[in-house]
Write a structure and sequence with these properties.
246 residues, 5-stranded mixed sheet, alpha/beta, 6-stranded mixed sheet, Purple Acid Phosphatase, chain A, domain 2
Length: 246
């Protein structure tokens, strides 16, 4: 069970600029229901304690595994109208364009929960389909995918920096300057990043590798709490140097 909000406050030397409050949200993976709840909590927090500038940062992996990938993209697109919403690219988002370009990639996407995404667009993939079905599904997704979803996926950013924090989906390559990071590492890296104990240029806020509860370390903060399986979608609030989970 989560502890009370007050007992989950933590202060770091790292800070965001004065007047800015950041809300960072972990991997959603098709759980539109949990995303709705997080947005309600953010709105309630801002209503209770207004901020001059609020930036909401989504850490990627919006689709696959959970049942409502299409609805998640609808929510994010709507949320971005009139709010400062930064949506980062996760490794799962790249499968949509790759599958449309090469239907044979369905076998790989399937292992990452891609069938659930296809079903959220009204398609009915079988558990084992050959080349003909793969091509048929790619053509059907091409027709079912709204233009605004395609534009949203193309526009995703690989990273975002604010003050002393660097927001990214998976992590960063140690000893490589942040401005020279390879996108593949930002989307996929695990052990080389997770096992690195020295400081990075900024505190890295990331998801990608599920943990039972948020993992706060001096050099990085992991907020992927496996929402699609656990029912816990984590939102980290950063203001000045104070960290709070809402």
């Amino acid at each position: 069970m989560w502890k009370s909000r007050a007992s989950r406050k933590k202060n770091l030397e790292a800070r965001v600029p004065d007047g800015i409050r950041v809300y960072a949200v972990g991997d959603v993976h098709g759980r539109a229901d949990l995303l709705d709840q997080v947005f309600e909590r953010i709105d309630a927090d801002l209503a209770a304690v207004p901020a001059p500038q609020a930036i909401q940062v989504m850490l990627g992996d919006y689709i696959d595994r959970g049942p409502s990938s299409r609805a998640v993209l609808d929510r994010l697109i709507a949320r971005g109208r009139g709010r400062h919403l930064v949506c980062l690219k996760g490794n799962h988002e790249i499968f949509v364009a790759d599958f449309l370009a090469d239907p044979a990639l369905l076998e790989e996407w399937r292992r990452f929960g891609g069938l659930e995404t296809l079903m959220s667009y009204g398609l009915t993939p079988s558990m084992k389909g050959g080349a003909a079905e793969q091509a048929s599904l790619a053509a059907a997704l091409e027709q079912a995918l709204p233009a605004e979803h395609r534009e949203f996926l193309v526009a995703l950013s690989p990273s975002f920096a604010c003050g002393d924090f660097f927001f990214v989906h998976a992590g960063v390559r140690p000893r490589v300057p942040l401005e020279r990071q390879a996108e593949h590492d930002l989307l996929w890296i695990r052990e080389d990043f997770l096992l690195h104990e020295d400081e990075f240029e900024k505190v890295v806020v990331h998801g990608h590798t599920p943990v039972e509860q948020p993992d706060i370390r001096p050099n990085r903060i992991n907020i992927d709490t496996g929402a699609f399986a656990t029912g816990r979608l984590t939102c980290l609030r950063i203001e000045a140097g104070e960290l709070t989970f809402i």
